[in-house]
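Reopening this ticket.

The earlier resolution said the output was attached, but the attachment link was broken on my side. Pasting everything inline this time so it's all in one place.
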Amino acid sequence: MSSSTAASRLSPVTGATPLSLCAREPHVPADRLVAEMVPPPRFDSVRFATYLPDPNQPSQSEAVRVLADFAAGLGGAPAAGGRRGLFGFGRGKAPRTPAGPRGVYLDGGYGVGKTHLLASLWHATEAEPARKAFGTFVELTNLVGALGFQKTVETLSGHRLLCIDEFELDDPGDTVLVSTLLGRLVDAGVALAATSNTLPGKLGEGRFAAADFLREIQGLSAHFRALRIDGEDYRHRGLPEAPAPFSDEQVTRAAQATDNASLDDFTDLLDHLARVHPSRYGALADGLGAVCLTGVRPVPDQSTALRLVVLADRLYDREVPVLASGLPFDRLFSEEMLKGGYRKKYFRAISRLTALARDAKGLVETD
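Inline output:
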């Protein structure tokens, strides 16, 4: 049952007609795809100074110092390649290449602030936003899918810094693709910084993955300095308990009473995501005050599940509350999925959707 059908069967509610994600088919220009490769809004204000190192973990303070020095070493000089990219930066006199590795890899467990530090590095690098990029591994592969490999190389070659969060080691094909891309960018003088997940089945998963990362990027390993960031691993706490879902009527009423809220049937939305390139999921969420979903149910297959993971990331980046009826979000993925090679993605999606569901509880009127 579609969201509009669900709404028509409920009691009349005074309020605006909700938006629909299924009615959106954003066409994102290539320059916007790259221009939006910046730290997510929740990391707009982070800086090295706002990172609070654990006094019992000296590696955290050391990481801040090394990254601050790395940012300072990038200076204001253009990338060595000086190639003309999407933003029109032309050839210039080749600058000096900073001494030392042109890449840093932040190696640590869950909850030690790797993304905070990566975003702080982006903010600390003295370059206009159009000359530095920040995105997840998935966003980078989506960019290649949207632009093509060679155009992506040309586009990013004029950058001073590329930050890659959650470099994924569980897809050999994508790993080779991105490693090849990074090799071309290093040749052009682009500095690199990355964090990564861990290969499935590894002992101590979620803690330290430097050896895996450096092996998988093969010839690029000499360009990276690994920074080990110790800290408490919060994974032992398990998945957060998802809030109980609301009724279809409560979700629809909230959508009609909330500015710029969308209202869609969950199955319809999953079908729609298959018709929209994942690189456009951020644009799909543009301007939304909340996402309201009716009839949440388990996702039927892995391809659908991975698309939902990307949407969850984009909504989380933009801090868009998600209100839903049907099953709670911790029952989205099958046991088989949660034990498979992409389980970390699914755990992350559950955690993020659960957080957004908690944010949405205030949208529902209670007696």
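Reporter confirms the inline version is readable. The longest helix spans residues 343-360. The CA atoms of residues 180 and 217 lie 8 Å apart.
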